[in-house]
Amino acid sequence: MSPIKRKCLSAIAAGTALAAIGALAAWPAAPGRVVAVAETSPSVLARQLAQGVLSLHGGGPLQTRLSAQDVRAAKTLARGITASAGGAAPPHTAECRVAYKVPCFSVRQLARAYGVDNAHRAGWTGKGVTVVFPIWYGSPTLKQDLARFSAAYGLPAPNIEVRKFGTIPPMPAPDAPDAPFRYAVAEEAVLDMSLVHGMAPDAKLVALVTPGNFDGPDAGYAEILHAMRSYARTHPGAVFSQSYGIYEADLPARVLRGLDRQIAQLATQYAATMIVANGDTGNTSGTSPDPAVPWPASSPHVTAVAGTRMHLTDAGTRIRPDTVWDDSNGIGMATGGGLSAVFARPPYQKPYRNLVGRHRGVADIAANGSGESRVVFYSTYNVLGGQIDRDGGWRRAAGTSVAAPLIAGITALARQAAHRPLGTLNPTLYRIVATPRRAHKFGIADVTTGCNSVPGNQGWCARPSWDPVSGVGTIGDAARLVPALAGRRTSGSSG
Fold first, then answer.
1. Could you tell me the pTM of the whole model?
2. Given 55, 228, 255, 418, which is the most exposed site by the fewest CB atoms within 10 A?
């Protein structure tokens, strides 16, 4: 079995939909001893399933990592804290606080908190922009799930196109051996599109669906990149959103560099903008205390997105500044953040050379992803909450699989405002945060509190300005950030 499929299967054992992969090196929080991470116990697996946090953990196939006992335990833990399995209305924040002991938020609330609703009123809704989601297998219920989600939140009917690159195997029954992986992919696809649609309701959404051939030396990425190139050739300037990856240590450096040359081609030749999730297991791979970085998040040509915790009222108003998504539950899940062992520091990170040395530092920006501030979406296929089913229902998700599409949606607004392709976003992003005053002026809110420590690894901690666990910061006011990313001096645009 290939590394990517083995890891994705194990992600389900960790309670996930497909997944952003977490990672990375170490910010000098106080020095201390690094201890080995013990083999994940059934009780931890059950807690992760019950938590419904999107992540990726390494290890063996699902059937050797997740037992029926784990699933039963997860269902017991999740009893009373899982979203409804088919009700017409999604759960409200107040209901989540009572039933789950933590809030859940809608895309409407996040749009209000980030100032995206003000950007919409200025005319930036994603009209004329395409956001692309390359994914293995896809979901046969993608359009109907998005339609239900949109109707519930008063969003425009989504404009969705599905392009298949090869023959896609039919969805298996829930008890089939490959059902956990396939259902996770389907759930991930729906989640990503739902969040982009919430931020950029008039953008076109395109799923590039591939057959999932994982047995080659590239761990399934050749077909993904082929699909991306094929689309980009005829649609230059598209925004790509990806919530998955593979740890650098799981592929030879020469293979990663070869794959990354194709990423570079997408950015330079086709002016593509790529937004990628940064991972959910702190500065580790989830199976070892060693620093581990996910690719393509570690590519210098993409914008890697870390996870934060938002502190909101039930109406979606910020109570206090966002903080780093940390491992508050002690289950080894926190935002990724650290240094690449393969890719060198890009020019836009030169001001932070004292932190990153000669390495590419990851992440670049952050958005909501904590299990303490989950987001609600609708999916027919499900692997969260300690069960594998296709019954349909409202789900609550966390992880950088939430954070990345939120940023991708806001990027689509900037693409519309620019009236031109944006290409690699990072040079512009880092330029507008050159000083704290500029960052605030252009709608970036610095994140200065929290660490991504997990058992066995102290991780990195937030600091003023750029750091690996929050990048340059998070969205303070999208109505100011959108024109800044677009290179505009005035607000208000359409088309």
1. 0.88
2. 255
